[in-house]
Amino acid sequence: MNQFKSKQQGVALIIVLLIVAMVSVMATEMGSRLQLQIKRASNIKENTQAYWYAMGAEQYARKSIKQLMQLDGDVIHLEQQWNQEFAYPIEGGGIQAQLFDMQSCFNLNALREPKVVSGSDGSTSGEPLLPERMLAFERLLQNVNPAIPSYNVDMLRDSLVDWLDENDSPTGFGVEDSEYESLQFPYVAANNYMIHKSELRLVNGVEVSWLNALLKLVCVLPNDSLFSININTVSEENAAIIAAATGLSLPEAESILANRSSGAFQTTQDFLNDPSIVALKLKNEQIEWFDVKTSYFILHTKTKYNESTFAMQTLFKVDSSNNVNAIRRDLSGF
Fold first, then answer.
1. Which of 205, 115, 112, 212 is nearest to 151 (CA)?
2. Which of the 8 DSSP states describes residue 21?
3. Residue-wise pLDDT tens digits, 239-276
4. Which residues contact 100 (CB under 8 A, 6 or more apart)?
C-alpha cells in the first residue's frame, strides 16, 4: 500500500513539474511578445516623429519659397538664401533640408510633343527634320559621353519619344510595345508622361555604363512638357544642359556660366547677348527655352529621431499668383 501511494505521489510531482514548465514557457513567450510589441510601438512612434519633422521642414520650405517669390521672384539665382542647406539639431536627432531648382535640369517630359516631319522646303517630302527638343536631347547624350555610338544616340532619342507619345507607331530608330513585350521580363511602353526620372532605365537604348551620368542632368516635371531652363541656377558642373540647349561646346557653356556677372544674369537677353550665343543664331523656339525665373523647386529632406531615419523629396510648383503647392512626394525611411 505504501509503495502504491509512493508511486502516486511521484506521478503527481511529475504533473506539477510539467505544469510549472508549461507556465514558465508561456510566461517567457508572453514576456518576449510583450517586449516585441513595446519595441514595435516605440519604432512606430519614432518613425512617425521623424516623418512629422520632415513635414515641418516641408512647410518651412513652402513659406520660404513664397517669400522668395514675393521679394525676388523676378530673378532666381544660386547666390540667394534658398540655395543654402538648412540644418536644425533637435534632441535625439536633427533635420537636414535643401532646395534645388527643377528648372536647372533637362525635363524628359519635354519630348512629349507632336512629331514634326518635313522637308527643307516645309513640305512633308524629302529629308525628315527632327524637332529642336529632340536635337537638344541628342546633344545632351553626346555631351554625357562622346563615345556613345551615333546609332545608340538615335535609338534612345527616338525610343524616349515613343515611350512618351500616345500612339503605337515607332519613330525613326525608336520602338513601341512589341519590342518591350519580347523581353525576358516583358512590359509595355508608358505612352504617357514619365512620373520619375528613374523610369528612363526602362527605355530601349539605355546603357548602364553612362546612365548614372545622364540621370544627374535630367529630371521629370509630372504631367508637364515645360522646357524652360533657368540660366542662373544651372551649375558649372551641369554645363552640358546649356550646351545641349544651345549647341555650344561644353567648354564654351562652362565659360559662360563661370562668368555670370554677380552670380546671375538679370535678364534672359543678357545671356543671349553673349558673343558665343549670338554666333549660333538660335531659333526662336530655342530662345524661348531660357529664363531667369523658376516655377518648380524640389526639397530634399533627411530627418533623424533616436534610432529612426526618414527621407523625403517634395516637388513644389509656384502658380501665377505665387501660391506654392506640393505636387509630388517621394517617401522613404520607414
1. 205
2. H
3. 999 999 999 999 999 999 999 877 799 999 999 999 99
4. 297, 298, 299, 300
